[in-house]
Design brief:
The protein is mainly α and 66 residues long. Helices cover 47% and strands 0% of the residues. It contains three helices and no strands. Helix 2 packs across helix 3.
Length: 66
């Protein structure tokens, strides 16, 4: 059974893209993950900035976002 990953700050269930983004921008072996709201606050950007980065990584073919 696969357990749903939760945001380490607020406890919200995470999407695959949120998990992939945390891994891409922090550590590929990360054990703690962030939702877009908490990650934007953590790194000091906007949620829209993070959504743009997700799109860019997908366009580049990053395998974390499959």
């Amino acid at each position: 059974m696969v357990r749903k990953k939760l945001c380490c700050e607020c406890g919200k269930p995470l999407s695959k893209d949120e998990v992939a983004l945390t891994r891409k921008l922090t550590d590929v072996d990360a054990k703690e993950f962030y939702c877009l709201d908490c990650f934007a606050e953590y790194i000091g950007c906007t949620i829209d900035d993070l959504k743009i980065k997700i799109g860019e990584f997908k366009e580049q073919g990053c395998t974390l976002f499959l």
